[in-house]
Design brief:
Elements: H1 16-28, H2 33-58, E1 77-84, H3 95-104, E2 109-115, E3 122-126, E4 129-139, E5 142-147, H4 160-164, E6 177-180, E7 199-204, H5 205-208, H6 214-223, H7 228-233, H8 240-250, E8 256-263, E9 267-270, E10 273-275, H9 280-286, E11 287-292, H10 301-314, E12 317-321, E13 331-335, E14 338-342, E15 351-356, E16 359-365, E17 368-372, E18 377-388, E19 392-400, E20 403-405, E21 418-422, E22 427-430, E23 434-436, E24 441-448, E25 453-458, E26 469-480, E27 483-494, H11 497-501, E28 521-525
Helix pairs in contact: 3-9
The structure holds zinc ion (2 copies).
The site of one zinc ion has 5 residues, from loops.
Length: 527
Amino acid sequence: MVSSHAVDYCASRSAATPLLAQENARTLTPTHPSRFRRWAKRGALALFAAALFAGAASMLLPNVPLNQDRSTSSDDRVVGAVHMHTRLSDGSGTVDDLVEAAVSEGLDFIVVSDHNTAEPTRYEYRRGVLVIVAEELSAPTGHVMLLDVDTVRASEPDSTDRAFGFPLHRPLGDAGLLLVSHPNGRRYWRDRSLSTVDGAEIWNADSEWRNDTVLDWIEALTLLPFRPALGMMALVDRPDRNLALIDSVSAVRDIATTCAVDAHARIRITDDFLIPFPSYRMTLGLVQHHLRLTEPLTGDAERDGAIVTESLRRGEGYCAIGGVADAAAVRIEAAGEELIVAVPPAVESARIRIYRDGTLVEDREGPELRLPVSEPGSYRVEIDVRARLLRARRLPWILSAPIRVGRSPDDPPTSVLGGFEDDYGNRHEISDTVWQDVGTRYRVEEWRASQQYLIARLDDASAPGATAWARIDWVLLGDESPWAWAFCISDWDARTYAEARASGTADRTDLRTGCGGFPFSRMRPIP
Ligand SMILES: [Zn+2]
Ligand SMILES: [Zn+2]
């Protein structure tokens, strides 16, 4: 929320600062100094009075603790905070300061992620908190958090593509856990299919506050000195674009998701003027990652670090934003034929929404919801609550990770099945066995939905005697309405299945020229 990624360590020192200073100097130079000073004084007095009044009024609001009074973690669940910076890059404190904040907020684990540290991931217990010291890498495609990577070879952002083979290949084979930071933030992630990573952040506190209105800010700044927890919450919104991206990808394959605090404990005003705000504690208290463990923790840091990393990769859990109630008591699980969502009774105003592959399928107020899930797909739960800030409104509280129900990620994905029209006005009919366009008919031999490609053969009907194999790569566009996805025929005349499969050279990060020098063809659904 209120820390700054504008201050990325890896970013070149901004040239904007001196310009800004000049501009301020210009606008603030009064033509009539005395009159200006008089007005400035009056303005400041009025502002001060207004702030005092609003502050006093805010004292009447209930004091919301930030995720306090949490029920204790169980054997199979832990609560932590992910993505934070120390002085090693662009944060203002130390790992011990973060641990201090984590202890105050009752967290079980934290993932520290300074920029481009080029260090192997470390695990240790400090004051009972499992500390995972990972890294946030500046890759050409955006920022990505690396966990469980033995050796990070590159500290120079410019050389990371060479060192890692970014953006198309994972580093170090299949080692490590790669989670995209702020996929829609200022430094957004360019590969919208997330094809080279394990997952992405659902929520990032740092990019979150950038889309707030003046009214939100007035409310936040008024509340902060008196009710910091409420002040932080005034800037919370539903992360629409992240959720759209997560939905579009999880519809076709399983991905990991995290809730990121992206704590810096400083805001950079100019190069040498920093405000140490908001504190680590405020940010770590604002959004927490409730994680279901693959197995109970042991007390051994190395072992537990591996368990938490593996659990993050499997990705079962939810984000809890703000301290409206005991989020650890929330229950979200698929049991048999039902998806069960239960909220502690103390939360009176809960509204539960359930999405399947990005489509809203249930929307109900109340403490409990049982939804029959006969339809396979990727389900996601959102719970919002009524919050009384200076303005009463509903705020997102719980955002669950995607929950896979009854379908293998390599089955044909629903998002690319049906009737579509491409960029050139050609129509395509795609079923799980046939891809028919204007002049060509492909028989689909294999769906590799988790890797977003398929292997097909030209059908005899459209090319008599044809034996050619084809590979078609696709990428989901997520938020480029009306275009839903785009494809590239990587190969159309391979002699064998293996040859077709090995021909995957499409570059999903560059839709203009990524298809062998040509653009991908975008597809929009025909209603
Ligand atoms: Zn970042
Ligand atoms: Zn960061």
